Amino acid sequence: MVTVIDHPLVQHKLTLLRRKETTTGEFRRLCREIALLLGYEVLRDLPLEPITIETPLERMQAVQVSGKKLCFISVLRAGEGILDGILDLVPSARIGHVGLYRDPATHEPVKYYFKVPEGMAERLCIVVDPMLATGHSAAAAVTMLKEAGARRLKFVCLLAAPEGLAWFEAAHPDVPVFAAAVDRELDDHAYIHPGLGDAGDRLFGTK
Ligand SMILES: O=P(O)(O)OC[C@H]1O[C@H](OP(=O)(O)OP(=O)(O)O)[C@H](O)[C@@H]1O
Ligand SMILES: O=c1cc[nH]c(=O)[nH]1
Ligand SMILES: [Mg+2]
């Protein structure tokens, strides 16, 4: 199931992000800002528990987020562009990394790194990667996380392609996807159109 976050600020910033004139510095800043806005919606249903506190004036029953700390998972490299923004919301969250790159010929993900915190079964895992194209990287990352014990996961991206969403949902029907937009289609190189180009290269200035 995909939820498109159609907040006007998300959509305005996404337009700026897509433009080919947008510089590396601006691209990075916009990713961070959009990630914060997406994160706000994605974490809307975090459970709360009561806590008694004292204000300077009196004792009161307040609330706090309950349960073990959240875990954010960045799918390297481009996930790093989203991680910063969502961390602004929950600075104490635990962080895991899944290193994947797409083989240019087959478009299949190749794994090169995996490191996640302890206690994955008790944590809500928010997996972040700006692009869900064929959906194979997202599905592979979630498979690895489930093998590491994760039970409750959400996937957050900026752009998704319809083909990739179908693939991901078939592989992981229990994992909801949140996106800023669902674009038209993939091209022969499995790039999203109209898209924003190569997210990793635009974030890091590698092309
Ligand atoms: O849905 P898919 O077809 O699998 O494609 C999406 C993947 O491609 C991009 O990463 P890339 O392989 O370019 O690596 P990078 O983040 O290191 O640039 C993107 O960040 C996703 O991880
Ligand atoms: O359009 C795409 C597809 C995969 N990865 C990207 O960075 N962009
Ligand atoms: Mg890339």
From TrEMBL:
Uracil binds at residues 192, 197-199. Keywords: Allosteric enzyme, Glycosyltransferase, GTP-binding, Magnesium, Nucleotide-binding, Transferase. InterPro entries: PRTase-like, PRTase_dom, Upp_B, UPRT, UPRTase/APRTase. It catalyses: UMP + diphosphate = 5-phospho-alpha-D-ribose 1-diphosphate + uracil. It holds the Pfam family UPRTase. One of its GO terms (molecular function) is glycosyltransferase activity. Gene3D superfamilies: 3.40.50.2020. Binds 1 Mg(2+) ion per subunit. The magnesium is bound as Mg-PRPP. 5-phospho-alpha-D-ribose 1-diphosphate binds at residues 77, 102, 129-137, 198. Residues 4-206 form the Phosphoribosyltransferase domain. Catalyzes the conversion of uracil and 5-phospho-alpha-D-ribose 1-diphosphate (PRPP) to UMP and diphosphate. This is Uracil phosphoribosyltransferase. It comes from Acidocella aquatica. The gene is upp.
